[in-house]
Fold this protein.
Amino acid sequence: MLHIAKITAAALAATSLLVGAAAAQTVFRSSDTHPDGYPTVEAVKYMGELLKERSGGRFDIEIYHSAQLGEEKDTIEQTRAGVIDLNRVSMGPFNGLVPETRVVSLPYIFRSVDHMHTVMDGEIGAEILAGFEAHGLIGLAYYDGGARSFYNRERPINSIEDLQGMKFRVMQSDIFVDMVNALGANATPMPYGEVYSGIETGVIDGAENNFPSYESAKHSEVAKHYALDEHLIVPEVLVMAKTTWDRLSPEDQELVRGAARDSVLRQRELWAAREAESRRIVEAQGTQITTPDKQPFIDAMVPVYERHVTDDRLKDLVARIQAVE
Ligand code: GTR
């Protein structure tokens, strides 16, 4: 019911382009699941400032943070329908829609965040971004989401053996379900907003995420064991509704793209600071961090690659990513 109420409210609010009375100002409605102050929210705000300045006040961005417009899966559909103009989402929830996003959602596909940056800033990143257009979306830029690791309420994880039989929430993607199952644990796909109560009530034992999400969504209050296995380095993406994009002149499209591009550096700086700060906060609040040997986790992912990297396009992308120094 809550979701439906949110969608209806958003749909009723107006057409996606709000035209202000005074100077025919276009305000893009932008969604983010994270709270105000989170690096992705702040980066889109910064993009809005740049857009406003560079367009002489013709464009602005209004941010609906804290999942005000719904959970990511729903907001993706609303963006495709043009009800939401801009959306900052993880690549994971796009796995069922945009095949290109699957390659960067494979566990341990990137050796490090630096490797991820080199790949995504280059031609492979551009190719993946272009893949959104066939699905009613325009990929504008990538943001950092660090590395995701497992956390749970039961016990410290020092090896794969410690994960056996535990139930972990994953983002709604078949790749993540198989990833968790390949480790001998059980995967439960569910929306981000349900994770806190899921852990609190014991429906799940834990979840997996980066430090800023673990901290800001307060999962750290209910799951005190965090294992730094860093199985996923999934970039985040900022997309625009194609219907909104198509209404802009080529010059204004370039303006939007440029402002998005210029917000990336700001987001990376904010991200690095927030990652360290969130880790400091959760440790001070009693989170126990373990550092299991990653190699057995990497080895356990062989069947996940066998199952999901089957067509030639994906095989080629995986090989090219792995070949990037
Ligand atoms: C966060 C990511 C969100 C969302 C969330 C989740 O790290 O920034 O976009 O995907 O994880 O686990 O659902």
Notes: Residues 33, 72, 89-90, 92, 145, 171, 192, 209-210, 213, 236 surround beta-D-galactopyranuronic acid (CB under 6 Å). Confidence is low (pLDDT under 50) at residues 1-16.
